[in-house]
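Exam revision sheet. Question 4 asks you to relate a sequence to its structure. Input first:
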Amino acid sequence: MNFIKIIIYKFLFLSLLTTSLLSDNHDTTSSSTNKKEEPLPLNDPFVGDSSFTGGVQIISNNETSEQERKKIDLYTYKLVGIIKSEEKSFASLINADGEVIALAMFEELNDGVKLVDMKQNEAIFQTEDSYLIMNFKNQIRETNEY
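Answer key, structure tokens:
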């Protein structure tokens, strides 16, 4: 009688073990034919963010011509990061195309626009006759001194 009980227990144990092993097996050929591809989003999430569509807010203390503003390439960029250390400091700028530029201290963005100072939340650029202070809210103030 004990011999029959042992055989029945082994049979039940093996049947439970094989059903659990077979239940983990996934058939990849039948599931791939039933899958449909999802459509791609209309906008590219890696191009940039929507803050560029609003444009740059310019806060000016003195009157400057529109031609001077077109010459300055700084208005097409947005400040995205400031990295300060005792040896070197950098400001990270990004344009509407998603191109990132890292400027070191006293390096020129273009002719006549040079990074001269950085604070915790703003970068200060020097032009020929004024200073441009750019903050993280995409605002650029033009002042005679800082």
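Marking note for examiners. Residues 2-34 form one domain.
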